[in-house]
Amino acid sequence: MTALNALTVAAARDGLRAGEFTAAELTEACLTAIDAAGALNAVVHPTPDIARDHAAAADARLKDADAPALTGIPLGIKDLFCTRHVASQAGSRILEGFRPEYESTVTRQLWESGAVMLGKLNMDEFAMGSSNETSTYGPVTNPWRRGNDDTALTPGGSSGGSAAAVAADLCLAATGTDTGGSIRQPAAFVGITGLKPTYGRCSRWGIVAFASSLDQAGPMTKDVRDAAILLTAMAGHDPLDSTSADLAVPDFEAMLTGDIRGKVIGIPREYRMEGMPQEIEDLWTRGREMLADAGAEMRDITLPHTKYALPAYYVIAPAEASSNLARYDGVRYGHRARLGQGDGVTEMYEKTRAEGFGAEVKRRVMIGTYVLSAGFYDAYYNRARKVRTLIKRDFERVFDDGINAILTPATPSAAFELGRISDDPVEMYLNDVFTVTVNLAGLPGIAVPAGLDRQGLPLGLQLIGRPWEEGDLLNTAYALERAAGYVEKPAKWW
Amino acid sequence: MSIDLDTARRVAHLARIRVDDDDLPALAGEFNAILGFIEQLGEVDVDGVEPMTGVTPMRLKRREDAVTDGDRQSEILSNAPDAREGFFAVPKVVE
User: Fold this and answer.
1) By three-state DSSP, how is residue A268 classified?
2) How many distinct structural domains can be found in chain A?
3) Which of A146, A244, A386, A458 has its Cα between 20 and 30 A from that of B4?
4) What CATH code is carried by the domain that includes residue A243?
């Protein structure tokens, strides 16, 4: 029998209901796995007491046959989500010691669905990074290695702890957030499924804000079915987030038929990047063949402004971040610098923020400050917002032409070595080249593991869907998953 | 557009982040690399294009103008680095 912590959400749900094991046993299996996985540095604030309380409550509910969808399912939570009275630091020193008095809407909905909280997961500081190396807790190590080579690889970022924890079976599933690719890139780097929903599908309330017009929470799971189950619990309108959509949340799992006959899948020519590794190209070709074999029609499409998505993102996201992060001033929560004789309030701000923020966060806050400053606002910020309009129009045009979903590679490479590109911000930004368009256009996107490269590392494909049609997107992803038949797991070394 | 040391210093101050003078040249270099990357946006014809404000066309919801929350002083102050007598405490602001 599969170890309990290695089960999918769906399998665990069925096993709990059939009485094959208890929520307490399932939770202990995960807590034991977490204790043994210190080398991954994925779980930064374990909450075993809360986990055991949640599990006991779940077992009681299962006995009374009053059990919502996620009853007894142990989850890991990205450190970006505020969880009541539990450390919520967004991977930053500046929030050291912060214990929120409130619960984010997404996590509240998960607990109300019966889920068990195992702890908080590592991430890039304020979700700014693509390798988990900007975290105040130190980097996460990818559970995958290149065969027998013990070089430490990145799990990607910013949701690197979530990705590693799911891939290493420390939890059944995890929450992530995605501003430019922070769910999909790490999911691809560790061989799991990662879904970024349509902007507005999940409430942002209680999630530490990075770039509010782009941020969206989503599930990171062992397969597509689990992503559907989790999204159903996470999504929904929230009066506390005025950008959350007042739309009914369907039962996404019930929409997984695997039948995609007659669906039209777009292949955007602009995603064939110069210098793209042949293995990524080959994987993309195989993905096309798999969807065609499943009865979908493949159609070449053009998204002409793709090239400008990353530069537009690196104006808009830092601009919004510079505003959002202004709140970390050493007054209301978190770190305050020790002040010298005669220091006033300005020195307090400047010293606190210099000590509390890491290099990448400072860089982005200052870039954002610059592009919003008098004299540059039009040239940079307004121009980027106009380009964003054009990027969204590119997608609207192809969807109007009858495209149901778009197939692209998820990342331009497999997982790379920790430390390899951490000193070159612009090269690091290129990791998001295939994912960032989706955030700018507010669309749903999903990364699905589709194979291994020559060195034995997972590679993912991305499907992009129409707004609010996550059900259809998940179903296409389900067909792709079944055709790819990906079942690989990292060999345990930790 | 090239960022000199004075501009880097001014931006750091606007962002309220202390940067030592010794670190300004490296910072200016990083700014220039990132801004060089962003410069590509200048190639795009954006004549007559509206800048995007929200990605999803929606009317913001309204609610009744009523007090729905409050009396949480101790919760609000519970994470403060320095709270005194029911207030956040900061260094003297007015001379």
Assistant:
1) strand
2) 1
3) A386
4) 3.90.1300.10
